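Students often ask what a holo structure prediction actually looks like on paper. The answer is less mysterious than it sounds. You provide the chain, you provide the ligand, and the output is a string of discrete structure tokens encoding the 3D arrangement of the protein together with 2-acetamido-2-deoxy-beta-D-glucopyranose.
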Amino acid sequence: MLSALTPISRPGLQGSKLLILVLCLNIQSEVESCPGACVCYTEPKITISCQQQGLTAIPTEIPIQSQRIFLHNNKITLVRSTSFTSCRNMTILWIHSNNISLIEPGAFYGLNKLEELDLSDNTNLKFINPITFRGLIHLHTLHLDRCGLLELSTGLFRGLFSLQYLYLQDNNLQNLLDDTFVDLLGSADVTDREGYCKHVAETCEKLGLGNASS
Ligand SMILES: *[C@@H]1O[C@H](CO)[C@@H](O)[C@H](O)[C@H]1NC(C)=O
Ligand SMILES: *[C@@H]1O[C@H](CO)[C@@H](O)[C@H](O)[C@H]1NC(C)=O
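The corresponding structure tokens follow.
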């Protein structure tokens, strides 16, 4: 009896699963699907604004069309590898002033339009996996100040050819490896820290890397 029932009930079950999936996809294609704690608007850019909402996690239903995502001043502790990966058009992400202690390595994978990433004031972060920023070829501003960073792992800034502004002050960095800033030096001498420091004077002064006026 049971074995006869099973094949009959199956197609119905799969049908409803399929319907739910289709409904979800439809909802996602509407810009109007705004996560509960957020305010969303489309001009001048498609913006999802969820700052200061006491959020402890990144909303799972962020519209994939989002170009600017503001999540600062919350209590978020984790950036998952899946948090933003569908948001391929994202250009600005502010997630500063949270309590992030882990960024999963794939969190920003494929976000090759990202221009500005603000992770500052997440004082429990302490470590960033070296592949975290890989492929962010249009990133021009990266805030990593007040992140309790103890080190910058080898290759962390590799391939960030557009980076113009890198903020690293107020961390606990002890040693910097010679090749940390290699790809940020552009055509300058690989070992020319001072050349690099002309672009990010404040950062370099704090790090004791070189005199901005020299
Ligand atoms: C991303 O932007 C392009 C160009 O404006 C657009 O054609 C595409 O639909 C956008 N993708 C998403 C997921 O919104
Ligand atoms: C931040 O997270 C840590 C755990 O990683 C927790 O112990 C601490 O209480 C949190 N701080 C705040 C201000 O929420």
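Residues 1-30 form one domain.
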